[in-house]
Amino acid sequence: MAFRFLLLTILAVQSAAVRFGVDLANGKAHGQPPFKKSDRIAIVGAGPAGVHMASRLKQMGYTKTVLFERSDRVGGKSLTLYLNDTGECIQQKDKTGQMDTKSCVAHDMGTCFLHNGYHSIVDLVNEYNLTTTVAPEGRAMFSHFAKDSFSSQSMQEFVTSSIMDGVKKGTIKVPWYALTTKLKVLGALISAVKQYNILHESLLGKVEFSMPPRLNASTLQKINMTFAEFLEKNDLHALSGFLMFAHAAQGYGYVTSIPALYGLWWISPELLNGYVQMSFRQQLEKIADYTTKNKAGRICQSMRGCWVRGLVSWLVGGEAGAVKRTTTMLPEGYQKIWTTIAEKDGLDVRFGVDILEQGIDRQLASSSNTPIVIKYTQNGEQKTEEFQFLIYSGPHAHAKKYVKDLADQEQSIFSKLKSFVLATTLYASPPVKDYTDESHQLPIMYSADKMADSSQDGSWYADRYDDDIFAGVWNPTMQPRVGYQFYENYESDDSLKDTDRTPLRNKRMSLAPAVLHRFKQELAKQLVTNVTIIRQYPWPYFHHFEQEAIQEGMPWDLFEMQGERKTWWIGASACFESVHDVTNYNLMLLSKYMGAQFEAGRIV
Ligand SMILES: Cc1cc2nc3c(=O)[nH]c(=O)nc-3n(C[C@H](O)[C@H](O)[C@H](O)COP(=O)(O)OP(=O)(O)OC[C@H]3O[C@@H](n4cnc5c(N)ncnc54)[C@H](O)[C@@H]3O)c2cc1C
Ligand SMILES: *[C@@H]1O[C@H](CO)[C@@H](O)[C@H](O)[C@H]1NC(C)=O
Ligand SMILES: *[C@@H]1O[C@H](CO)[C@@H](O)[C@H](O)[C@H]1NC(C)=O
Ligand SMILES: *[C@@H]1O[C@H](CO)[C@@H](O)[C@H](O)[C@H]1NC(C)=O
Ligand SMILES: *[C@@H]1O[C@H](CO)[C@@H](O)[C@H](O)[C@H]1NC(C)=O
Ligand SMILES: *[C@@H]1O[C@H](CO)[C@@H](O)[C@H](O)[C@H]1NC(C)=O
């Protein structure tokens, strides 16, 4: 039957899971490594990209790396604070030798989730013996689909409302045999997921290291629009409400303005399947249960029976009651990944470093043997060191300030990078109605309408209650939580417009008074009073290319100039703002330019 074929196709697309090892589909391996084992290599920035690169290079025998870090810690945008009942604390081992993550709870002010497609991070977690925990279910979804602005829905109710809205308006078609609302919603969702996944592969091919390969002119034209326009144009209305939040919730921009490339980049078929499973797990398990009960007798005798069974075997993997939980978190904090790597690999990190303006001179005009000279201050003392190769993981948009001999090609690419602001605030307040109140006690909140477009800049659009997640504690009076605000436009705010900044861990006052003020206003609108602000971090975020630069091929031009001028440009500016992407980008560089082979993320 037609839908049987349909489900097989979904299965085929889904199982095209991406692992490492081979070269890029249409890439060519470059011969000579750009540096020797005896060379000194300078790495600017000890965030995830810099730490991971130094660690993998060490595994390959390149041990003379030095990391230059502006702040007093490794981890960059993976920043964890810890609180107990009386204030800040340090996690200690308990009697059994395990970290006590319950009485001293981790609050991630940056990276926090480990999604189902994050193979490179799962590999690191395993390699360094870190602990993960499955993120608890239940989300408080606020949106115009709910009863009023103080009422939330579950994720499943939210997606259902948004799809049924489309069905009513006629933008979403459902099969005639989908009689109940449940089946209408799942039917519409499944057929849109299938269509999306097929489209994704036809446009981007099989993506190897998370960054799509260079796209040809006809493909570029098909994605020369915003992600929202792309979904609309390709008749993917059933995914609109869902993806609007799945994309924007991470601070990756509003789907109404972000170029389609980035939507497709982030929402891989694997990630999308994971999100759908997560949102409908309980319902799917019920259906799975139903089909199991009927297995002995007449399964798949009616079209509807076949369809439901096929649906379930796709989403549940054939096993009843075993829908995979897809989002995990780190109870010891995300920063722990990078501090553990730096410690166990014995990386040479210089903290509190200020590289002087024009302080990096690659001496490109001289012969290729001339060293790279780096001038910097550390604890007020000026120092000069020489290296043979530079790896730069800071924001590329600001490289011009530090690198004296930036070439025209480099500058013309970097000057096209634009960024956003994602602010996180650690604060304490009494419970929030329909989210952390007594009758709900939910771990995470999203406010969907506040992810619609730039008129929503500065809204309180997401929130997390870590005590609930990591310690199973619900407090009826005061709850420490982490709130999120996002800005597409921020240039009019003097405290935000210089995006060459690293928010410091111990700085008590917010760097951006307007952001803090807006946060308190937003909470008050939701009837949250008695708010105590503990810390706020307005991160410069998601350095990316705008539509025109994508059409000119800049993301791929950047990759192809790697190694020229004694430099690798890595980190989020080179690819996409996630730990998954920056580590994959490193693996791609090592694979393509050094012929490295990996097994579970380790060099072999
Ligand atoms: C609130 C928030 C939530 C997030 N959630 C997730 C998530 O759930 N999943 C996910 O995958 N990702 C998430 N991210 C994104 C992820 O944290 C980043 O993509 C990742 O940290 C990027 O790594 P990086 O090394 O490229 O850059 P950064 O993490 O920004 O590190 C760069 C480092 O370089 C240093 N540096 C910069 N310039 C200089 C200079 N001139 N001299 C010396 N040092 C310099 C900085 O101090 C910093 O330590 C989140 C980020 C934030 C802010
Ligand atoms: C909280 O942690 C601090 C520092 O680790 C410690 O001094 C204090 O006693 C702790 N408070 C509680 C209630 O455990
Ligand atoms: C992780 O644990 C294994 C088994 O106990 C051990 O062999 C390995 O050295 C550990 N890895 C690190 C990085 O500590
Ligand atoms: C462009 O790339 C797509 C996707 O890889 C491919 O299907 C198509 O044939 C290519 N078109 C041209 C003109 O090369
Ligand atoms: C992309 O679309 C814009 C209009 O939205 C158009 O001006 C531009 O020429 C297009 N670029 C390409 C390469 O098709
Ligand atoms: C707000 O805090 C004050 C003083 O801590 C307390 O008396 C009052 O009951 C609190 N109000 C709420 C709504 O929790």
From TrEMBL:
Gene3D superfamilies with a match to the protein in the record: 1.10.405.20, 3.30.70.1990, FAD/NAD(P)-binding domain (3.50.50.60)
InterPro entries according to UniProt: Amino_oxidase, FAD/NAD-bd_sf
Tagged with keyword Protease: no
First and last residue of the signal peptide: 1-17
Pfam families: Amino_oxidase (PF01593)
Domain Amine oxidase: 49-437
Domain of life: Eukaryota
Keywords: Signal
An MF annotation (GO) of this entry: oxidoreductase activity
Protein name (Swiss-Prot/TrEMBL): Amine oxidase domain-containing protein
Source organism of the structure: Cladocopium goreaui
